[in-house]
Give the backbone structure.
Amino acid sequence: MTFLIGLIGQGFFFARTLVQWLLSEHYKKVLSPSIFWIFSLTGSCVFFFYGWLRNDFSIILGQSITYFIYIWNLKIKGSWEKIPFWLRTVLYLLPAVLIGYFFHDVNHFAMTFFSQKDIPLWLILFGSLGQIIFTLRFVYQWYYSYHKHYSILPAEFWYISLLGSFIIIVYAIIRHDLVLMLGQSVGLVAYIRNVMIGWKELKKDQQ
């Protein structure tokens, strides 16, 4: 059950990467389509639950930071308002409800997520580092897009993606987490291709 839920969540993240990559290949420039952010938001909702079932704080940490960045990108692209009001309300409240549930008993939370015998503290910190780096790409993307006044996936976004993805793959191998391994391994190809497309686009603009 847990594996299936994780696979579904990873499926949405894979779909966002695949669609963005294929569209960028087609138009020969790095794009930030609305569907990328819709899949991101959906996958994040599913992965909140997956991280909870896995008792994996690093996954929960990563999703908590990026969730509202996905919404911001949908807003600036004019896609957020097209979502029914009731669903937008649920999406706004979901993180608060889940995080509130996780932290309703601080002592229990600490015991569950940080004192597991099967996951040493150094591994939790290592996995969290990967998630933080991987998550910072969206923080940087938001900062960059905010000053440009439109949604864009800059070159640095893909460089940070590669670094964070590598750490997460190592973490997933150690934890025998096939869901994370599959998702990140496939994502590496798309990240590299976006870097290459970006380079070609830059050279073309300089000519």
